[in-house]
UniProtKB/TrEMBL annotation, chain A:
Species per Swiss-Prot/TrEMBL record: Kwoniella mangroviensis CBS 10435
Protein name: tRNA-splicing endonuclease subunit Sen54 N-terminal domain-containing protein
Compositional bias annotation for Low complexity: 497-511
UniProt KW keywords: tRNA processing
Family designation: Belongs to the SEN54 family.
Every tRNA-splicing endonuclease subunit Sen54 N-terminal domain range: 136-218
Polar residues bias (residue ranges): 1-18, 29-38
Pfam families: tRNA_int_end_N2
PANTHER family found in the cross-reference section: TRNA-SPLICING ENDONUCLEASE SUBUNIT SEN54
GO BP, one annotated term: tRNA-type intron splice site recognition and cleavage
GO cellular component annotations of the record: tRNA-intron endonuclease complex
From TrEMBL, chain B:
Protein name from the UniProt record: tRNA-splicing endonuclease subunit Sen34
Keywords assigned by UniProt, alphabetized: Endonuclease, Hydrolase, Lyase, Nuclease, tRNA processing
Function: Constitutes one of the two catalytic subunit of the tRNA-splicing endonuclease complex, a complex responsible for identification and cleavage of the splice sites in pre-tRNA. It cleaves pre-tRNA at the 5'- and 3'-splice sites to release the intron. The products are an intron and two tRNA half-molecules bearing 2',3'-cyclic phosphate and 5'-OH termini. There are no conserved sequences at the splice sites, but the intron is invariably located at the same site in the gene, placing the splice sites an invariant distance from the constant structural features of the tRNA body.
Cellular component annotations (GO), alphabetically ordered: tRNA-intron endonuclease complex
Keyword Hydrolase found: yes
Domain TSEN34 N-terminal: 22-89
Region (Disordered): 122-181
Catalytic center residues: 280, 288, 319
Gene3D superfamilies: 3.40.1350.10
Domain tRNA intron endonuclease catalytic: 255-330
EC number: 4.6.1.16
Organism in which the protein naturally occurs: Kwoniella mangroviensis CBS 10435
């Protein structure tokens, strides 16, 4: 339809370079030509991406092969398949419409034309029309479900964290936090217990459940005690709803929850992305709203919690501390440097004299008296290396400029905002304990994740990275543990021990050691002993500490991992 | 485009595109679309597609295909507002609660509706039960006949075999008869058992009779739209709630977007492909993108290595690089040509000049 002349000129010029077969592609681009399947493979340069893309084709937007990114996603068959599956209001004729939903299989993509062509224009029009119908039919779905499986919560202007009234389903095993309240003195006199606790939802949790159609949030004005007595703000079976309240729409939900408590669009989209895939996601304790951490109970735990909290409130302090602590090391380093130069001078002087080794006179190696490569390198190193060394100081934000606990994210947007557990990882809300130190120890998160906006956020500075690496735990060492029933192997029958086999290496090793001793006695074996240490390349690549970052490009979420690795820790000599 | 199914959502009546401006709802600086009909209008008439950002109802465990709301790029939003196609309605950070009267009225309506629904469901359920029990009777009769036939056939066979054995072994003829009888009774009794087990199973399935439950819709639009209708829409930008375009670069982005849009191209998100936009020759549902754009503001210098990178990037993704040079005054700067790369001057219009960039070689 909107096919400008320009594009038809641009097309052929595009297919000029080096690939004759591409012309076939451009001309014969009638849908369902089987030759199109080869089109990724015919350019020798894209062969690799073709290999990469074939298995991931069903995943939909891994971004691995360039053409396999988001733009290829829109295929009529795919859209149609989703359009067929979306939830509609059950009409009167079919009562089982909701329950008899088929299992989801994401189908393979079909083909797209390269450009509008005059000879296929009618066909293209038709295909386009079909695609559009499929797309918009996929958008008319209705959120919700059977009234018996929907949870209910209430919000009021004074407490924008939805309070759960009715809980249904296993989603709530990992969503929501319980808050303990003290009962007012008046109620206590009526014989009620001292305190009560209720489950409330974080903004992202509420919004995710709401737009998923699992939770109905009810809005009501702040209720007076008298109204509460009359059952307002409570679930009423007769009214099929919450008394004195009105349903919150999903649109209202977005307006209410996005922008609250540090929940930006990017963070919400990262959260929803992970939750849709079944991960357990919780905020890092640093960013849990105070409302949830406040504990009015007079138990001793509360004071402990608040002290932990105040430490975590100002993670910017950490490099500051280390800077002070490192002054002595700098001083010793300085003295070492002075000492060395003095030694150099002495060496030079002594070289004039008769004693000392004057082979390295005038070089950096002057004064070196080791006997290994390692000692040479150590001698040559004048700039300290390794992650234990302090970084040059960068002004950290003044604390009074931070009005809320989320302002720190403007200084370091990469700070981990979420803890992520794999669906298979054990997790209980009680054990996690709102992300307390002990909770994270008992239920270590699989990932620590920051969320940034990709168009405007620059790559992290070394200070920003260092700040985060100070927080995150060490990466697990050793072989990767694979969790899940598919990895459980039947126990292997014990191997019959062959006595001959056991003997053989013994004899060979004895000859080996014999050879060694001979070599040693000849003064040659020394080099053999100083084998270069084993360099674990995967460990270098993995790093000793790491976190992941969700990069949000106006709604598309991609994931990047930052690992800290150093060659100082893995010196090959 | 044919009219879409309304699907029982009362919401569609809020924003009818024919009556003036389309409403885009502004959530924290991002414009959203909540209506499939509006999405279709934007897509087909105004060539703006947006990005679907919501969990798809009914298929909620995947990220490959999302549903409403649609989120729009800043450039798309600004374009629609500047062209007088749409206006922005900023959503409040906490919705205004309707008056008590409105709420009670709404509640009464809800009760009435759900009662009706449940009544209907109950009736349907009863009807269904009647039908299914009839079907079972019928099916049971047939199945029984079948089973008996099978049993008979089996008995025949065994009898034959026994007879053959008898022939071979000359055994006594008293043994086979009781076996056949036993086997027939064996086969017949489970049939009776099944009957006795399944017949009470039908009423047990209808236990939810007392409270049949109903389909509960989570509304996408406010059930009482009065609060949103009272919000003053934003008709000119930049606005404090939508601060775009505020810098020269923003202006350049918007002008490039508008210029390309007016020539019938469609823009998609480019950062994943290393540019500002992906530029499609038509609807992205049917066509691949042809260009990856780079927006160059005023006389921003271009490094040769950048040219190489953009050219390589374009060919690597089967696209051409598109340099969009923007100036706010009329004296357009000209790019020097004659690089190793083939450069092609596109056209000159307004403040934006386009050059396509492609990686080529000799021989």
């Amino acid at each position: 339809m909107n096919t400008p002349q320009r594009s038809s000129e641009a097309g052929p010029s595009r297919s000029k370079p080096s690939t004759p077969r591409k012309i076939i592609h451009a001309n014969g681009s009638i849908p369902s030509t089987p030759a199109q399947n080869n089109d990724e493979g015919d350019n020798p340069r894209t062969d690799l991406s073709a290999i990469n893309s074939t298995p991931g084709g069903a995943g939909g937007g891994d971004g691995e092969g360039e053409e396999d990114g988001d733009e290829e996603r829109m295929d009529i068959k795919l859209i149609q398949s989703f359009a067929d599956k979306i939830q509609h209001l059950p009409s009167t004729s079919e009562t089982d419409g909701i329950t008899s939903r088929s299992k989801i299989i994401i189908p393979r993509r079909g083909e797209k034309d390269f450009e509008p062509l005059s000879e296929t224009v009618n066909l293209q029009e038709m295909m386009l029309q079909k695609s559009r119908e499929a797309l918009f039919n996929a958008l008319v779905g209705v959120r919700g479900g059977n009234s018996k499986s929907i949870a209910h919560a209430i919000v009021t202007p004074s407490n924008p964290y939805p309070k759960m009234l009715i809980i249904h389903g296993h989603l709530f095993d990992t969503i929501g936090m319980s808050i303990r309240y003290t009962t007012s003195a008046k109620d206590q006199s009526k014989g009620k217990s001292k305190g009560y606790s209720q489950t409330e939802l974080l903004p992202e949790e509420a919004l995710y459940l709401l737009e998923r159609g699992t939770l109905q949030i009810w809005m009501s004005k702040d209720l007076s005690d008298e109204e509460k007595e009359n059952g307002w703000g409570e679930w009423s079976e007769e009214e099929y709803g919450v008394k004195g309240a009105i349903e919150m729409s999903v649109m209202d939900g977005f307006g209410t929850f996005i922008g609250r408590d540090g929940l930006s669009w990017e963070r919400y989209q990262a959260y929803a992305y992970l939750k849709r895939l079944g991960y357990t996601v919780q905020r890092t304790r640093q960013f849990i709203p105070d409302h949830f951490l406040f504990d009015p109970s007079p138990f001793p735990t509360s004071s402990k919690e608040s002290s932990v909290d105040s430490n975590e409130l100002h993670p910017g302090m950490q490099p500051f501390h280390t800077w002070w602590l490192n002054i002595p090391r700098w001083i010793t380093g300085l003295f070492g440097l002075i000492g060395r130069s003095v030694r150099n001078v002495i060496g030079r002087i002594s070289a004039v004299g008769l004693f000392g080794d004057n082979r390295f006179k005038g070089t950096l190696l002057e004064g070196w008296n080791g006997n290994s490569y390692k000692s040479i390198f150590q001698h040559l190193r004048i700039i300290p290396q390794g992650h234990s060394q302090p970084l040059p100081i960068r002004a950290s934000p003044p604390f009074n400029s931070l009005k809320s606990k989320y302002d720190i994210l403007q200084h370091n947007p990469y700070l981990p905002f979420y803890h992520i557990w794999k669906p298979s990882a054990p997790f209980t809300k009680r054990g996690w304990d709102k992300g307390s130190e002990q909770g994270l120890k008992d239920y270590p998160p699989t990932y620590w994740a920051g969320v940034v906006e990709s168009r405007t956020t620059p790559i992290p500075t070394i200070q920003q990275l260092d700040e985060i690496f100070q927080m995150v735990p060490d990466e697990p060492k050793g072989p990767v543990k694979k969790v899940g029933p598919q990895y459980i192997k039947p126990p292997r029958p014990p191997r019959p021990t062959n006595t001959n086999d056991n003997k053989k290496p013994n004899t060979s090793s004895s000859t080996d050691s014999y050879l060694h001793s001979i070599l040693k006695s000849m003064g040659l074996g020394k080099k053999e002993d100083e084998k270069p240490p084993f360099v674990n390349i995967p460990a270098i690549r993995n790093g000793d500490r790491a976190f992941i970052v969700a990069l949000n490009d106006s709604g598309n979420t991609g994931w990047v991992r930052f690992g800290r690795s150093g060659f100082a820790e893995f010196a090959p000599v | 485009m044919a009219d879409l199914l309304k699907n029982g959502e009362s919401s569609t009546s809020i924003s009818t595109p024919k009556e003036g401006l389309i409403s885009l709802y502004l959530v924290n600086g991002v414009a959203t679309v909540w209506d499939a009909q509006v999405a279709a209008t934007l897509h087909c008439i105004h060539n703006i597609s947006g990005l679907r950002a919501g969990t798809l109802p009914g298929v909620s465990q995947q990220n490959g295909f999302l549903g409403l709301p649609l989120t729009l790029m800043k450039e798309e939003t600004a374009y629609l507002v500047e062209q007088g196609i749409a206006h922005l309605i900023p959503l409040p950070s906490f919705p205004t609660i309707p008056t008590a009267d409105d709420i009670s009225h709404h509640t009464a309506k809800r009760i009435e509706r759900i009662r009706k629904l449940e009544q209907h469901a109950r009736e349907l359920e009863e009807e269904r039960q009647k039908l299914s029990s009839q079907a079972f009777e019928k099916g049971g009769e047939k199945a029984r006949a079948k089973r008996e036939a099978r049993a008979r056939a089996k008995a025949e066979k065994e009898k034959e075999q026994k007879l053959r054995e008898q022939d071979g072994l000359f055994g006594d003829d008293t043994t086979p008869t009781p076996i056949i009888q036993e086997s027939t009774t064996d086969i017949n009794t489970p049939v009776k058992l099944e009957d006795t087990v399944t017949t009470p199973a039908i009423p047990s399935g209808s236990i939810p009779k007392d409270s049949p439950g109903h389909f509960l819709t989570i509304p996408s639009h406010p059930p009482i739209p009065s609060s949103i209708q009272s919000i003053q829409p934003i008709k000119s930008i930049p606005h404090s709630l939508f601060p775009f375009p505020s810098t020269p670069r923003d202006q350049a982005l918007l002008d490039v977007f508008t210029t390309l849009q007016k020539r019938g191209y469609r823009m998609g998100l480019g950062p994943r492909f290393g540019g500002e936009y992906l530029i499609y020759p038509g609807d992205y549902l049917r066509y691949h993108a042809h260009f990856t754009s780079q927006v160059i503001v005023r006389d921003e210098p271009i490094k040769p290595s950048e040219l190489v990178a953009w050219g390589r990037l374009g060919t690597g993704t089967k696209k051409a690089g598109l340099l969009c040079c923007w100036t706010d005054n009329e004296s357009n700067t000209k790019l020097r040509e004659g690089q190793e790369n083939e450069e092609e001057k596109e056209e000159q219009e307004g403040g934006v000049e386009f050059y396509s960039l492609e990686w080529a070689n000799f021989g």
